[in-house]
Amino acid sequence: MPISSFHPPTRILLGPGPSDVSPRILEAMSRPTIGHLDPFFVAMMDEMKSLLQYTFQTQNDLTFSVSAPGSAGMETCFVNLLEPGDKAIVCQNGVFGGRMKENVERCGATPIMIQDSWGKPVDPNKLEETLKIHPDTKVVAFVHAETSTGAQSDVKTLVEIAHRYGCLTIVDTVTSLGGSPVKVDEWKIDAIYSGSQKCLSCTPGLSPVSFSPRAVEKIKTRKTKAQSWFLDLGLVSSYWGGIGKRAYHHTAPINALYGLHEALVILQEEGIEQSWARHDRNHQILKVGLEAMGLSFIVDQPYRLPQLNAIKIPEGIEDATVRTQLLQQYGIEIGAGLGDMAGKIWRVGLMGHSANLRNVLIFLGALEKILSDLGAKIEVGAATKAASLKAAA
Questions:
Q1: Is residue 218 part of a domain?
Q2: Angle, to 10 degrees, between the axis of helix 70-81 and the axis of helix 95-106?
Q3: Residues 6+ apart with CB under 8 A from 103
Q4: Domain end position, chosen among 220, 237, 269
Q5: Do 262 and 283 lie in a common domain?
Q6: Per-residue pLDDT of the chain (393 residues; tens, 9 = 90+)
Q7: Which H, E and C letters describe 296-316, residue by residue?
Q8: Based on the domain organization, do 126 and 169 belong to the same domain?
């Protein structure tokens, strides 16, 4: 029997990513494919650099999108800034700090791990103490917005400490870029990466990155070749680094880049600070509704990400049952806990195009009905009422 065209169901994506994609972005991706060295495409690449500089709040010349997901953006930073035998401090407070460690090891470098509890921010005091013990450290790496827990760390302070000891910094902003303040130049971040599918609300598969002049100098003076040919910035920058004329490195994902370009145009139209405020406003409305229902968060308020809400599962309620009913009955996707948090939390994303009042109210109503039917000890009827009052205030 022949296989027919694939038609996915319509979902409300409220998980840890991807987020809902604007129809404008989907339309942009359907436009005619042209060559990756076509003058019109090259002109769009120049615009993309400018748009990403705005989004990252930087003037870094080496700012572009890696032609692969955020995990490749992570690897781009590590393979270009570390050499065999180097020491790198990795601050881990969730799943993705563990992936950083893996990258350090695969570069032939030595990871020095700083562990913080899941759901807590990275502790700056621990970083300073570790740097005193390991003054020959080359790189300090940490996650700004830990997707596995919804906790955010103090980037500015951590970077300041790392720089006092002569280290370069690598910062993961996969979940924060576009949804929370990210200020590359003001915070003096050396290498940063993100993803297209979260608060930027594009389709998955691209990783915006940016490198400071200090990081570029390190790349230029390496004693060894970067471990990865495809991610070697000494080669990639010949395609992305210039203005106008570009040297061939790889065939860029042309239509996907149309989509990211449109996503960044939408962000520019809204305004980066307005986007940060929208994400926070919808988080506050969700928070009021959840707390009225009797549910709570695992992350303390000062460190809580507005776009990734880690909610404690009520006693006696089975994680997968609720997520399955949300998907099958309401078309709503939320995320399960990872690692140490598996079975303990739900991860509810309010990212990009998904971060709106309609989605918050639909989710609260659906969750309340499911939990009530399952016999959870919650305040029935309180969630959407409290959220609506908060939204109207």
A1: yes
A2: 40
A3: 74, 75, 78, 79
A4: 269
A5: no
A6: 899 999 999 999 999 999 999 999 999 999 999 999 999 999 999 999 999 999 999 999 999 999 999 999 999 999 999 999 999 999 999 999 999 999 999 999 999 999 999 999 999 999 999 999 999 999 999 999 999 999 999 999 999 999 999 999 999 999 999 999 999 999 999 999 999 999 999 999 999 999 999 999 999 999 999 999 999 999 998 888 755 567 889 999 999 999 999 999 999 999 999 999 999 999 999 999 999 999 999 999 999 999 999 999 999 999 999 999 999 999 999 999 998 899 999 999 999 999 999 999 999 999 999 999 999 988 888 999 999 999 998
A7: CECCCHHHECCCEEEEECCCC
A8: yes
Tell me the longest C-alpha to C-alpha distance in the chain. Answer: 67
Domain membership flag for residue 2 = no
Structure tokens at 79: 């393979």
pTM assigned to the model: 0.96
CATH number, position 256? 3.40.640.10
Q: Are residues 256 and 311 in the same domain?
A: no
Residue found under tokens 């019109």: 40
The Cα 340–Cα 21 span in angstroms is 30
Helix/strand/coil for 69: coil
Tokens of 81: 């800034």
Domain residues for the domain of 287 are: 272-392
347 annotated binding-site participant: yes
Please state the domain count of the chain.
2
* Residue 8 within a domain: no
Residue 145 structure tokens? 């917005």
Do residues 226 and 370 both lie within one domain?
Answer: no
120, 197: one domain: yes
DSSP summary character for residue 230:
T
Neighbour-count burial for 74-111, b at 16+ CB within 10 Å, e otherwise: bbbbbbbbbbeebbbbbbbbbbbbebbbebbeebebbb
